[in-house]
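Quick start: read one record
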Amino acid sequence: MCAKATMEEFEALLNESFEMDTPDEGSVVKGKVIAVEAGQAIIDVGYKMEGRVDLKEFANPGEAPNIAVGDEVEVYLRAAENARGEAVISREMARREEAWDRLEKAYADDARVEGAIFGRVKGGFTVDLGGAVAFLPGSQVDVRPVRDAGPLMGLKQPFQILKMDRRRGNIVVSRRAILEESRAEQRAEVIGKLSEGDTVDGVVKNITEYGAFVDLGGVDGLLHVTDMAWRRVNHPSEILNIGETIKVQVIKINKETHRISLGMKQLQEDPWDLVAAKYPLGSVHKGRVTNITDYGAFVELEPGVEGLVHVSEMSWTKKNVHPGKIVSTSQEVDVMVLEIDAAKRRVSLGLKQTMRNPWELFAETHPEGTEVEGEVKNITEFGLFIGLDGDIDGMVHLSDLSWDQRGEEAIQNYRKGDIVKAVVSEVDTDKERISLSIKALDGDPFAEAVGGVKRGSIITVTVSAIEDGGIEVEYEGMKSFIRRSDLSRDRAEQRPERFQVGDHIDVRVTNVDSKSRRLGLSIKAREIAEEKEAVEQYGSSDSGASLGDILGAALKGDE
């Protein structure tokens, strides 16, 4: 009876063990460390199953294994039994599953996770997140590019999960997001203590072409190149060095973007406060050329005070050349103050005003009638341009080339580069013009020929040609024309054919035109004048004498 009861109990226990649910392969189970030997931990996972796990699976990156007999651990059951009758288990895979559950929750809550960088891969680094391996892109390591990531390796620190896909086993994390958030909090705290106008100390962290970034103790401010000094600064490195501690003034704070604008020159005396007194209009000063542009050159009068010499104020004679052909950078020059605009902080300077106006100087040394010599610089449709002293030009108009030839014909006798002589006929300093005459070198034959002739004079001319409209006559080599209507006061005698070439005729001068170089002559005017003179001398028709009697008496008197 007793034996029968014992068998029944054994059978019941056996059936109970068969009916007990064994863990599924591919699940995480709890186990107990029962021994540590040969670099492995032997773990009893229950259900009369034991397995072995390498000790390294219990170690965090860069740390020693932390495991001892009696410890309860979770492992991943890969297979219930292997060829040796042992369970195939993995602590690493259990940690991974546990980590994925934890990380998915953190990702959903947008919470930070702790991890350690343990390896370098293409484009970034690998991070252990307590069992799960994540990818850290190189751009997400720090707010600025990191040249040496050695100090960050193996160091436990927070990360932000950017993206994760459990099915593919991908996790992407960012260290930069944590730093930016921390930095933003720090910036907000520092900015909250700053006010515009404050003077603070800062350290130069970075230098660019347009300025320098200055660390104010957790927050960076921009010191623009134009706010470093009152004078022109071509590059910030001229006055700043990285790591240097400088004193700056807070110019502007943008509370929304947390941007801070700084200035150094604001802590110095503004030289423009004394500009008007130190540089009165019309005064001449020495300066240094600091910059050359297409429209002029900037000249520094003193540190912080620059003026512009416009291209039109650079030279009396060089009108269409680049300023770089007249002055060079760093050259010392004398300049005259032409205008000051204190509101716009502008000074207009003149370079040519410090030198004598070459046209005024020429007018003083070359009065009208002076003979000059120069090279033909240019030939145009209206005349010649002759190079003169003082790097200026004078112009010979077509009408001043020759007395005998038309200007269009006379200009054909000249070539560019010819050395010619001329006479100064006019100097206009305001319009910067000098008029020259080549034909005046030989004097004026017309003036010489008619030197004693005035309007009303009676002269004797020689007929040189007979035409339908009148006759051509010559006087001292100068030719004139007498129209048919001026040949006689008697209409019947106004016939050109009654004259012959070579005849000598007395005529009256009615006009002397120096410009057209012509004498106005008339036989008719001579006859009328003679008649008038006779009437005045021998009587008048009112006294009873006839015109014939008067003229007869006049002729008899002449005899």
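The longest strand covers residues 27-37.
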